[in-house]
Recover the amino acids of this structure.
């Protein structure tokens, strides 16, 4: 008889819940660790790339305008594309595919020939303050170098002051690092505690010798794994709620999206993280080894390869490819969009789907591995 038994499941779930309440280390990981990390990221961390993707809007096609556009296309600091319509570029930047839009206005060439001021507009994606500052500095450098070269060619040094970039910042107008760090740090915290909470579960059973007793019961593998998962899943949601509340109320981080999307994406991400922890725990059978592996696979990829701190598009191609196998890459994108941009389903749905696939993979492998251990 291999059918799922609600009675067996509820009995084991009750046992797991009591064990959590009696274990101080679980509460420390679920609530004290997130509080500590959110305060560190909120008060102690501040971020003041190359190949930054930008769009160049050509509102006129005069010689001077084309020359300036070519200067942006030639610099190694930008991955630029041109268009005479800003609408598509604005949509691309809203989805995080562009980091800046440079607009060369009408009458630009004529104004330069008449030695009139000809400002250009630079719209920046403030959801990545570090990259936005780089983009503005690079754009200013491109314009200054181009004007200096033009002044030499025309033998008129006074023209170097005619063109000035006028920045406009979207999503994070004040370029506050905290407004980006705290949403991103929630992904780091959820990844770490989600993996840690379950990485010790099955290993603890083996170390304490209680796994043999569990194997002697009619409890099925799916029932056992689900009973172990549910309490930690609820703890993870509680931890996320705590972090979001502190971020919004204490640190004043704006929230422009939907709380439904926030909880949905967190639930899917927790499934992936908890599944990873269960797989580690089932494989190692040792709490110390499980904790070390969970830190390496939970914290380091989330911090380095998620786009939280380091721009993914500036990474080498093999490293960029590696980021796709880690759930934090997708969760950071959803969090930053939900907090700063709003609910963008065309951005959220692909990332949700990717996290769900990773979660299904972890649980499938864990079920297979655990079945072998119980049958052996």
């Amino acid at each position: 008889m291999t059918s799922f038994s609600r009675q067996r499941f509820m009995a084991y779930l009750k046992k797991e819940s009591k064990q959590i309440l009696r274990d101080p280390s679980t509460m420390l990981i679920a609530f004290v660790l997130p509080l500590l990390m959110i305060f560190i990221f909120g008060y102690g961390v501040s971020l003041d790339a190359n190949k930054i993707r930008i769009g160049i809007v050509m509102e006129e096609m005069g010689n001077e305008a084309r020359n300036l556009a070519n200067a942006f296309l030639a610099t190694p600091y930008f991955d630029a594309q041109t268009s005479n319509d800003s609408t598509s570029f604005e949509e691309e930047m809203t989805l995080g595919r562009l980091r800046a839009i440079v607009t060369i206005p009408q009458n630009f060439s004529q104004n330069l020939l008449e030695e009139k001021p000809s400002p250009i507009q630079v719209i920046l994606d403030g959801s990545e303050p570090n990259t936005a500052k780089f983009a503005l500095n690079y754009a200013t450098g491109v314009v200054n170098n181009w004007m200096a070269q033009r002044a030499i060619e025309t033998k008129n040094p006074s023209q170097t002051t005619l063109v000035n970039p006028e920045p406009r910042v979207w999503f994070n107008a004040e370029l506050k690092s905290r407004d980006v760090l705290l949403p991103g740090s929630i992904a780091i915290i959820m990844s770490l505690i989600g993996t840690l909470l379950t990485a010790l579960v099955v290993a603890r059973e083996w170390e304490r010798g209680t796994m043999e007793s569990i194997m002697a019961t009619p409890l099925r593998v799916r029932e056992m794994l689900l009973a172990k998962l549910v309490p930690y899943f609820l703890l993870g949601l509680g931890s996320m709620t705590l972090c979001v509340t502190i971020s919004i109320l204490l640190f004043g981080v704006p929230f422009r999206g939907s709380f439904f999307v926030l909880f949905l994406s967190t639930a899917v991400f927790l499934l992936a993280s908890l599944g990873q922890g269960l797989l580690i725990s089932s494989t190692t059978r040792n709490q110390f080894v499980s904790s070390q592996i969970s830190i390496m696979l939970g914290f380091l990829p989330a911090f380095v390869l998620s786009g939280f701190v380091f721009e993914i598009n500036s990474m080498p191609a093999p490293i960029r490819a590696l980021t796709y196998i880690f759930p934090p890459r997708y969760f950071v994108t959803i969090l930053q969009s939900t907090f700063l941009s709003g609910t963008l389903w065309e951005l959220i749905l692909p990332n949700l789907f990717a996290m769900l696939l990773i979660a299904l993979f972890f649980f499938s492998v864990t079920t297979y591995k655990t079945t072998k251990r119980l049958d052996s």
Q: What stands out?
A: DSSP finds 16 helices and five strands in the chain. The longest strand covers residues 52-58. Residues 44-48, 372-376 have pLDDT under 50 and may be disordered.
